Prior knowledge:
single chain, 457 residues, alpha/beta, Rossmann fold, Immunoglobulin-like, 2 domains, 4-stranded antiparallel beta sheet
Amino acid sequence: MGVTNSNKVISTDRIACDGALRVTLALTAAPDIVSNPTDIVLILDRSGSMTGAPLSDMKLGAKTFIDLIDEATDSSKDGQIGSGSRMGVVSFSNSAVADTQLITSVDALKTAVDSLNAGGSTNHADAFTKAVQLFDPTSANAKVMVMFTDGNTTAGAPPAPVAAAARAQGIIIYCIGLIGSDGFDVNALNDWATDPDASHVAVTPDAADLEELFAELAANISKPGATDIVINEVVNPDFVITSISSPTKGAAAMLDAHSLRWNISQLGVTSSESASLDFFIHHVGQQPGIKLVNQSITYSDKEGNAVIFPKPTVSVECDIVVHPEKCPEPVELNVEGCQDSVLVDLGDVSLKSQGRIIQMDVTIKNVCPGKRVALAAILTEVDQDGMEHQRGMKAMTIPAHNSSMCRDVRVKCIQFVVPEDLNVSGGAMCSPRKLKARFLANHIDTDYRCCESVVML
C-alpha cells in the first residue's frame, strides 16, 4: 500500500510573540495491495452544502481514486479491480445509501459516483453503519473506509460510537475533510479515524485540493510500504527548534536551530503501521501576523512514494513596544587578545539624584491605529500609618501606530528615582519601602468637534 497518509499538525493556532508550540509529523504505511487484497468503501457526503463545485471536485477526486486502485491491483487500467481486492460506494445526506456493493467493475463504481446529487442534512452515523454492512466478516481481505465530508453532523445518531465499533472490527478508517459552509469540527474526524489521528486525517479549505488528496491516498496504496525514509524539516526563520521528542519509529536529530532530520529504516512493510514525531518550536521574531510554521519539508524513500505534508499556520500576536525614556548612551571599549587587564578613562557621569530606582512597564490595551496616547504615571509611598506621600508623576506621549486594527501597546522602562525619606520609610537606611503606582491613559487624537453655531442675519 505504500505511504497511505501523511500529516503535520500543530498544538495551537494562536501564540504570543514569545510563545511556543508543539509540531507533530505523522506517517502511515501499509503493504502492497497486490499481495494483500483489500476491500475499500468510499463514503461520500452529498448533503446540501456540497452543491456546486464541492460536489464536482469530490466526484473528480473519487473517480481518480478508483482509477488508481484499478491500475495498482493489476498494473493496467483495464476497467477491473484485480488481485482479489474490491471496492464499494456509500453516499449520505439525511440518511445513507449503499450505491454499490463490494465490486470490481470500475464503470459501475464511477457511474455510482457520477449519479450523486447534493441535498439534505448530514447523517454520519448512518453512513458508517451502511459502510460496515458492506464488508464480509469472514473475508481475509484488509478492510478500509475512506470517509469524505464537508460539515458537522446535523442528523441521526452520534457517529463516534459507530466509528469506534467499526475500528474494533479491524476496519481502518481514513477521513478527508473539506471545510464547508456549514462549519467543520476537525476533532470529530480525529475521533472517528484510526489512530494516530495525525496520519489518518487530511483537511483542506479548498475543494480544488480534493483530487490531490484522493489521488495521494490511492497512489500510495500501490507501493509495498516504505523503506529508507528520510524527512528533512526546516522551520520558518521566525521560529527556532527548542527540543525533539523521541519518535515512535526511527530516529530524529536537530541539524541546527531551524532544521531537523527524521530517518525511518522501514514502515508498513508487513502490516499497516504508523509513526509520529513531536518537536517543539519557539517564536523569536518581532513582528505579529499569520505565519507558516515550516519553511520547507522534503520526503524521500526507496520506493519513491509521493508524500505531501500540510502547511499549518499560526497566528502570532505581538505587543507594540514603546520606550518613552532613553537609556544612557554606552561608552565602547575594547580588550585586546591575550590582554589580562585594561585601564580605561570613561569620562564623567553626572549624579542625577540619590535614592532607589523604580523601573516600571505597563500595557495600554486596545490602542487604535493613528491615535496618540497621553500616559501619566503616578508614584506614591505608603508610611507605617497607611498614609500616602507623593513621590512623583510623569506624563508622556505614546506615538501612534499604523497597524490595521486596534492593538495593545507595551510601554517599557518608566523610571523614577525615589530618595530615602527616613520619616516615611521607618527611620533607618535600607528599610523596606511600600510604594503604589497608578497609571492614567487617554487618547490625544480624536474626531470629536464642538458644535459650531451659524448665525443667520
